[in-house]
Amino acid sequence: MTLTSFGPANLIKRSPETHPLTWRLRDDAEPVWLDEYQAKNGYAAARKAFADMAQDDIVQTVKDAGLKGRGGAGFPTGVKWGLMPKDESINIRYLLCNADEMEPNTWKDRMLMEQLPHLLIEGMLISARALKTYRGYIFLRGEYTTAAKHLNRAVEEAKAAGLLGKNILGSGFDFELFVHTGAGRYICGEETALINSLEGRRANPRSKPPFPAAVGVWGKPTCVNNVETLCNVPAIIADGVDWYKSLAREGSEDMGTKLMGFSGKVKNPGLWELPFGVTARELFEDYASGMRDGYTLKAWQPGGAGTGFLLPEHLDAQMYAGGIGKVGTRMGTGLAMAVDNTVNMVSLLRNMEQFFARESCGFCTPCRDGLPWSVKLLMALENGEGREGDIETLLGLVGFLGPGKTFCAHAPGAVEPLGSAIKYFRSEFEAGIAPTSAAVPPLARPIVVGA
């Protein structure tokens, strides 16, 4: 798989009118540095924002465009920006880019940072102008060493060109930008855990409220946005709200385009910029070219390991939050994974839950104890040593670790694929119960929530 696999040439031709995120990409996958980026209309949106738009107008434009977070949660970006304090006396504010892309099966932000670092910097510059933030940080996954090198070079190029630092574009506005590499924790994808880690603390999520917009980095107002989210900002400012909304397919409630992908044993695994509202079948058949010879599609996840499994009959769902929600799970990051007919679902779930259990911050009891418990039960079922009642216990854990039951969203995301796998492939879990096993006493099992 390559980070520049954008589908068959007869299916996709990138242009500024249809592919605001990817039209500047080079065919050789080399980074687009400052001179080339500016030759391709780079920083034109920033110049427009600084010269022709009031700061509040930038916020309103992003809100009117319907831009939503691209990190997985899908919160409206303009609404989030509007939570920042209006008090002009608060002169220390921060903008954080969440580039800690540790969701399994997700690599979209990596491509943007490695090949289009100036697009992210321009998006952050415009956002900083709108939010009146004087300092920004790109909190980068530590393993992304190439991205770190390219981002740091791009930051230095922008500084030398007067696009970062003091008195940017003669406006009197100052903005400093730093690349900060993390130590490698999945939980840093949660914005307050990211803030704690940036401050040098243990990466535990914080209690909310107060939200980062009020009390964030070092106690100051802070806005946290995902890489792909920020990279959408320049095109919205340059080309306007109506154009941006027109990019999405009919029926989609999400606006613009999205980096989507497919991995697994498909013929053409890769990453593509597509309009919200395309069907998963188009993504799977037309772009990923279906399963490799000798394999059939058994199940798929629409957007990372923390989203529920779906079946082949769900491929006609539209790829936007509400479209995927109609078939019972979440859009997530939009990078799908195909599960082929040779995969045992119990083994796959055991592997996933081991990852999620290891990455728990350990702060709250349901997550700290519940996820390792699920791993032990799945290991027993995988080895044919399960007992009667184990599946019910797993379903009980799915309920106890669900939304609203834990301190943050880590555990609900971890158990969503588990619950869906049992729903669709229960016979594979039942096959792991030892023939002579005795039922677990009822009091040794949690009450199944909702039973």
From TrEMBL:
Keyword Iron-sulfur: yes
Membrane-crossing residue ranges in chain numbering: none
UniProt KW keywords: 4Fe-4S, Flavoprotein, FMN, Iron, Iron-sulfur, Metal-binding, NAD, Oxidoreductase, Quinone, Translocase
Reaction(s) this enzyme catalyzes, per UniProt: a quinone + NADH + 5 H(+)(in) = a quinol + NAD(+) + 4 H(+)(out)
Function statement: NDH-1 shuttles electrons from NADH, via FMN and iron-sulfur (Fe-S) centers, to quinones in the respiratory chain.
Family: Belongs to the complex I 51 kDa subunit family.
Listed name of the protein: NADH-quinone oxidoreductase subunit F
Signal sequence extent: none
Gene of this entry: nuoF
SUPFAM superfamilies given in the database record: Nqo1 FMN-binding domain-like (SSF142019), Nqo1 middle domain-like (SSF142984), Nqo1C-terminal domain-like (SSF140490)
Record-linked InterPro entries: NADH-UbQ_OxRdtase_51kDa_CS (IPR001949), NADH-UbQ_OxRdtase_suF (IPR011537), Nuo51_FMN-bd (IPR011538), Nuo51_FMN-bd_sf (IPR037225), Nuop51_4Fe4S-bd (IPR019575), Nuop51_4Fe4S-bd_sf (IPR037207)
Cofactor: [4Fe-4S] cluster; FMN
Keyword Mitochondrion appears in the UniProt entry: no
UniProt-listed Pfam families: Complex1_51K, NADH_4Fe-4S
Subunit details: Composed of 13 different subunits. Subunits NuoCD, E, F, and G constitute the peripheral sector of the complex.
